[in-house]
């Protein structure tokens, strides 16, 4: 019980600290660019036109809504984090004491499968809070107050979209999580088994580094699923950020994926530093976006 409580507190603390980062990221993912490109230097020192990074974007939000404005959507996100942590732990618990003598690969496959089920269960149960979090953030674009409270947001979504509205964007989110988990664990297993030699004094440390590196690599490969999921969660929900000119009404997440791929926007919002101006597009000040 104490361990579960500490995990909930840790998860909630990390969620609160990273809220401004997620807020800016979501607005960039939607395509909202309130600040025009400026002339700067890239990592190689060459002069190029760049889009505002995390700190410039955050300063713009603070200028309009104050520092508290950086934490819009925090309450449903904290609910999602706490409930997800509890569900994840409960699903893993039944098999926690069953340690069978299996080979290394079998152990990786079994543990990854159990982790996949636990993560999927947590994602499924907490997705409604995730949808509300995203919509609270996207309200910044049109200055709406439609999703101003967590409970009232539940009532609004149910009244306007029914039960399915709470699970907008769920499928690509689940697929992305599952693919990322399997890619990370299998790549880490291959590296730890065949690339690192046993007997090295820092073997445990090197294996932990390989896990972190493969996790980063897997998250990069599955980022399009995160982008599509977030866009579908706010699409056509009555907010300016989910309607034209920022996004058409997508018929499905596959339609969203197809249009993003066609426009070359599959990595939009993937980085918040050294952001390049999209090739072949111009900045439209009136719409605060590129087209």
Tell me the distance between the termini: 52 Å
User: Could you list the spans in which at least 5 consecutive residues all have pLDDT below 50?
Assistant: none
The SS-based structural class is mainly alpha
Number of helices: 9
**N-to-C order of helices and strands:** HEEHHHHHHHHEEE
User: Main beta sheet: strand number and arrangement?
Assistant: 3 strands, antiparallel
List keywords for this structure.
291 residues; mainly alpha; three-stranded antiparallel sheet; two-stranded antiparallel ribbon; globular
Task: Please render the helix and strand layout as text.
Layout: H1 2-30, E1 38-41, E2 47-51, H2 54-65, H3 74-92, H4 104-142, H5 150-161, H6 170-195, H7 203-221, H8 223-234, H9 253-263, E3 275-276, E4 283-284, E5 289-290
Antiparallel strand pairs: 1-2, 2-3, 4-5
